[in-house]
Write a structure and sequence with these properties.
The complex is a heterodimer of chains A (472) and B (225).
Chain A: H1 11-80, E1 85-91, E2 96-99, E3 114-122, E4 128-140, E5 144-151, H2 153-203, H3 219-269, H4 273-305, E6 313-316, H5 317-334, E7 338-341, E8 349-352, H6 354-371, E9 377-385, E10 388-395, H7 427-437, E11 441-446, E12 451-458, H8 462-467
Parallel strand pairs in A: 7-9
Antiparallel strand pairs in A: 1-2, 1-5, 3-4, 4-5, 6-8, 9-10, 10-12, 11-12
Chain B: E1 2-6, H1 10-22, E2 26-30, H2 33-42, E3 47-51, H3 59-68, E4 75-79, H4 84-92, E5 97-100, H5 105-117, E6 127-130, E7 133-136, E8 141-144, E9 147-149, H6 153-164, E10 170-171, H7 172-180, H8 190-203, E11 211-214, E12 218-221
Parallel strand pairs in B: 1-2, 1-3, 3-4, 4-5
Antiparallel strand pairs in B: 6-7, 7-8, 8-9, 10-12, 11-12
Classes of the chains: A alpha+beta (472), B alpha/beta (225).
Chain lengths: 472, 225
C-alpha cells in the first residue's frame, strides 16, 4: 500500500526544476547581454580606429599631396601599421594606386561609406583562407578613392571563443546545479519516504514505532523529534486507557459477582425475612459502590475531555482551603489526626470551577485521612509563586515510594500495601484530571516522612483580582 | 399535592410513582418531553420531576420552553450526568433543583418536600423560632430557653438551614449543598460529625431534643411535643 515517491513526482523536485529553469534563464540573459555588448563594443572600436586613420590619411593627402599619402600608406602597410590593417588607394575607376590589397574588393560601385567583404589571405603553410574585412571608403578630392579596413579574423575568432566559453559556462553551471539539486531532492525524497513508511506503520497499529531521527539538528530531525514527542502522548493515553478499561472491568466484576451470588442463594433458599433484609442491604451497598465508581470514572473522563470548565469563576484558594479544613477538622480529630492550614499566602486566585477545585482538595484530604495513621498530621497550604498558585497537601504518613508516584495517579492503580484498604483507587486520578483540566500539573513528592502532593495551577494576575470585586 | 413525573424509563417511573403515592402525593406520568411539555402547560401541578434526557424533546429544552411560557411550577431535574457542568446547565435552564441518578428515594422525597414547601421570599425574616430555640439572624445569636448557645459561624449557618426547614427531612447531601456549597459527595461521614457537634450544642441538657436523626434519610429539626 506504500506509494513510492519518485523524485519527479515530488513537490521539491518540481520546485528545484523551476529554480533551475529560472536560474538558467537568468544566467543566459546575463551572459548573452555581456556577449552582445562586448561584440558591439568591439565593432564600434574597429569603426573608430578606421575612422581615425581615414582622417589622418586625408590630412596627409591635403597637406602633402598624393606622394605624401602614398608614403604614409606604404609606411603603415609595411612596418609599424596596426595588426590586420588593410589599405587601398584607387582612382575613380577602381584602378589600384597604392596599398596592401591587389584589387578593388567590391563588385561594382560602392556608394556606402562602410563596407564589409572578404579577402584571401595567405597563411604560414602557403594555403589561403578567407578573412572577413570591414572597411571605410573615402573620396579624396574627387579623383581618388581611399579604402581603410581591418581584418576581422582575429576579432571574430575572439568573439566566437567568448561565445563558446559563455555557452560552456552556462552548460556546466546548469549541469552542476541540476546534479546538486537532484542529490538534494533525492535526499529529501528519501527522508520523506522514510517518514511516510513510519507513519503508515503507526497507522496500521504499531503505536510504538517512531520517525527516524538523528541528532544532526537539521530541520528534518527537529521535525521528527517533535512528531515523536507528539506520538508519545497518544501512545501513553492508549496505554492508560487500556489499563483503565481492564481495571474498570475487574473492579466492577467483583461486586457484581457478589451481588449475583447473594441473590441466587437467596432465591434458592427462601431466606427468613431478617436474612432477606441483610441480603438486600449488602447488595445495595455493592450496587452503590459500583455506581459511585462509574460516576467518578465519568467525572474523570469529562475532566480529561473538557477544554475548560463551563462554570468558570475566580476561585480564592486560601478561602476555599480554610472552609474545607473547617469541614474536615472534626472528622480528622475523631480519627486522631491533626488537620491544619500550613502557613499560606493569601490572595492566590485561580480561574476555574469552585466545585471541581473543592473536589480536588477534598480528594487529597480524604486520601491523607485514609492512609495516615492515628496521631499523624495533615497540612493544607496555598501559596503564590510567580504566575502559579501552589496548593500543597502534606502528611507524615507512610508516603508513596518514588517509583510508584506516577502510577498511582492513574485510575485504579493502588499501592500493593493498600489493596486491602477500602477505596476505589480513583481519588488521585480524579485529582490529577481536575488539575489537568485547569491547565496545571500535579506532583507527588517526598515529605520526609510522608507524602506531599503539590498542585501547580495557573494563578490569575493580581490586576484581575483587584478588578473582580468592583465588576458588579 | 400533585406531581408531574416526566421519565422515559418506565420501570424507574413506576417505582417513583409508587413511592410518591405512598408518601401522600398524587402523581401523573408523561413518557417523553413533548407529552411532558403539553401536560405541564395544560394541567396544574405543584411540582414537576423531569428526567434530563428524554425522547422527542430533551429535558432541558422542555424546561426552557416551559419557563418561556411563564409557567413557574418548581422543577426537579433528574440526570444520569453527575458532573458540575451538567448541574449548572440544568439550573440555568430554569430548574429549581438537580438530582443525580442514582439516588436514594429518601433523597428525592426530601427534595420534593423542600421544593413544595418553598414559599416565595416575602418579607425578610430576621428571627427563627422552633419551640424554645430561637435564632436572631441579625445579631447572629442563638438562644435556647433564653440561654445563649455558643456556635461557630458554620454551626450557626447549619442551624439556620435546619430551622428554615423545620419539620422537613434534610438529607446530608442537601446540607453539603446548602451550607457548604459543595455539590458532590465526599466519601467521609462529614455531616454526621458536624451534626453531632451541633446537637451537643443545641440539645445537651434539655429533655426535649429538637434535632432528630431520620434513619436512612438524614436529619430533621422539629418540636416533638
Amino acid at each position: 500500500m506504500s506509494r513510492r515517491l519518485r523524485p519527479l513526482d515530488f513537490a521539491v523536485s518540481r520546485l528545484a526544476s523551476l529554480y533551475l529553469a529560472v536560474f538558467a534563464i537568468g544566467v543566459g540573459l546575463l551572459l548573452s547581454s555581456v556577449y552582445l555588448l562586448a561584440s558591439h563594443e568591439l565593432e564600434l572600436e574597429t569603426d573608430r580606429v578606421i575612422e581615425a586613420e581615414l582622417e589622418g590619411l586625408r590630412d596627409e593627402y591635403e597637406l602633402e599631396g598624393l606622394s605624401g599619402l602614398m608614403q604614409g600608406l606604404s609606411l603603415r602597410a609595411d612596418s609599424w601599421g596596426r595588426l590586420g590593417a588593410v589599405y587601398l588607394l584607387t582612382d575613380l575607376k577602381h584602378e589600384r594606386v597604392a596599398g596592401n590589397l591587389t584589387d578593388w574588393p567590391l563588385a561594382g560601385n560602392a556608394t556606402a561609406k562602410w563596407v564589409e567583404f572578404e579577402i584571401l589571405a595567405r597563411t604560414e603553410d602557403d594555403s589561403t583562407i578567407k578573412h572577413p574585412v570591414r572597411a571605410g571608403i573615402f573620396e579624396l578630392g574627387s579623383s581618388y578613392l581611399l579604402l581603410v579596413g581591418t581584418d576581422l579574423n582575429q576579432q571574430r575568432r575572439f568573439v566566437r571563443g567568448f561565445r563558446d566559453a559563455i555557452l560552456w559556462g552556462i552548460g556546466l553551471t546548469m549541469l552542476l546545479a541540476a546534479s546538486i539539486g537532484y542529490f538534494y531532492v533525492r535526499r529529501i525524497a528519501t527522508r520523506v519516504r522514510d517518514v511516510a513508511v513510519a507513519c503508515e506503520q503507526i497507522i496500521s497499529g504499531d503505536l510504538g514505532r517512531r520517525l527516524p531521527a538523528s541528532d544532526s539538528g537539521n530541520e528534518f530531525d527537529q521535525l521528527s523529534h517533535t512528531v515523536n514527542l507528539m506520538l508519545d502522548r497518544p501512545e501513553q493515553q492508549s496505554h492508560t486507557l487500556r489499563a483503565t478499561f481492564d481495571s474498570t472491568a475487574h473492579d466492577l466484576r467483583a461486586p457484581l459477582h457478589r451481588v449475583r451470588m447473594r441473590l441466587e442463594q437467596a432465591l434458592r433458599h427462601e431466606p427468613a425475612e431478617e436474612d432477606a433484609r441483610g441480603v438486600m442491604q449488602s447488595t445495595l451497598a455493592d450496587v452503590e459502590r459500583v455506581q459511585r465508581t462509574l460516576a467518578t470514572l465519568m467525572q474523570i473522563a469529562q475532566a480529561d475531555a473538557g477544554s475548560s470548565p463551563l462554570q468558570s469563576e475566580p476561585v480564592d484558594l486560601e478561602a476555599l482551603a480554610r472552609e474545607l479544613i473547617e469541614l474536615y477538622e472534626p472528622v480528622s480529630r475523631a480519627r486522631g489526626l491533626e488537620l491544619r492550614l500550613l502557613p499560606s499566602s493569601s490572595g492566590p486566585r485561580v480561574q476555574g470551577s469552585r466545585q471541581l477545585i473543592a473536589q480536588l482538595i477534598t480528594n487529597l484530604i480524604e486520601n491523607a485521612l485514609k492512609y495516615v495513621p492515628c496521631g499523624g498530621h495533615v497540612g493544607l497550604g496555598v501559596e503564590r509563586r510567580g504566575d502559579r498558585a501552589l496548593l500543597r497537601v502534606t502528611d507524615d504518613g507512610p508516603g508513596i515510594p518514588a517509583s510508584e508516584r506516577e502510577r498511582v495517579l492513574r485510575p485504579f492503580e493502588r499501592l500493593e500495601r493498600d489493596v486491602q484498604q477500602p477505596g476505589s483507587g480513583l481519588g488521585l486520578s480524579l485529582a490529577s484530571a481536575i488539575v489537568r483540566l485547569h491547565r496545571g500539573r500535579i506532583l507527588l513528592e517526598d515529605n520526609a516522612p510522608g507524602l506531599r502532593v503539590v498542585c501547580e495551577l495557573p494563578a490569575m494576575s493580581v490586576v484581575g483580582v483587584d478588578k473582580q470585586p468592583h465588576a458588579a | 399535592m400533585h406531581i408531574l413525573l416526566i421519565e422515559d424509563d418506565l420501570e424507574a417511573a413506576q417505582y417513583l410513582e409508587k413511592g410518591l403515592r405512598e408518601s401522600g402525593f398524587t402523581c401523573e406520568h408523561a413518557r417523553d418531553g413533548r407529552e411532558g411539555l403539553f401536560r405541564a402547560t395544560e394541567g396544574s401541578y405543584d411540582l414537576i420531576i423531569a428526567d434530563r434526557m428524554l425522547p422527542h424533546l430533551d429535558g432541558l429544552a422542555m424546561l426552557s420552553a416551559l419557563r418561556q411560557k411563564s409557567i413557574t411550577t418548581p422543577v426537579l431535574i433528574l440526570s444520569a450526568l453527575g458532573t458540575v457542568d451538567d448541574r449548572v446547565q440544568g439550573l440555568r435552564a430554569g430548574g429549581d433543583d438537580y438530582l443525580t441518578k442514582p439516588f436514594a428515594f429518601s433523597e428525592l422525597l426530601a427534595r420534593v418536600e423542600a421544593l413544595m414547601r418553598r414559599r416565595p421570599a416575602t418579607a425578610e425574616v430576621t428571627r427563627l423560632r422552633v419551640a424554645d430555640l430561637e435564632l436572631d439572624l441579625l445579631g447572629r445569636r442563638a438562644t435556647r430557653a433564653g440561654r445563649d448557645i455558643d456556635l461557630t459561624a458554620k454551626e450557626f449557618q447549619l442551624l439556620e438551614f435546619l430551622m428554615r426547614r423545620a419539620g422537613q427531612v434534610v438529607t446530608r447531601t442537601m446540607l453539603l449543598e446548602g451550607v457548604w456549597d459543595l455539590h458532590f459527595d465526599p466519601q467521609t461521614n462529614l455531616i454526621d460529625v458536624h451534626m453531632s457537634r451541633l446537637r451537643q450544642a443545641v440539645d445537651r441538657g434539655f429533655d426535649r431534643p429538637l434535632i432528630q436523626t431520620v434513619r436512612g434519610a438524614g436529619y430533621t429539626l422539629r418540636d416533638e411535643a
